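Batch manifest line 81
LIGAND: zinc ion
JOB: complex structure
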Amino acid sequence: MKDFGDCTFCGGEVEAKQIEYDYRRMERLLVISNVPTGVCRQCGEKYFKPEVLKRMDQAYHDVFDRHQEPERVLEVPAVSF
Ligand SMILES: [Zn+2]
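JOB STATUS: finished
ARTIFACT:
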């Protein structure tokens, strides 16, 4: 059984992959590694299962609202175009 259907944008095959994902809301960014996703082999579009989105949302609130210690903290440079 395939975990993901074909890509809704290009019809390409979507393969199950673990990725590092930048979960960002407004000015706050949480980098989450080992996220189970479906990634389109053709266009790279990412697909998330609802339970995965929910877990990422929980992790975001754990760190930013409940002040849980993250595993690591990265320094992120920013520039204007
Ligand atoms: Zn695609």
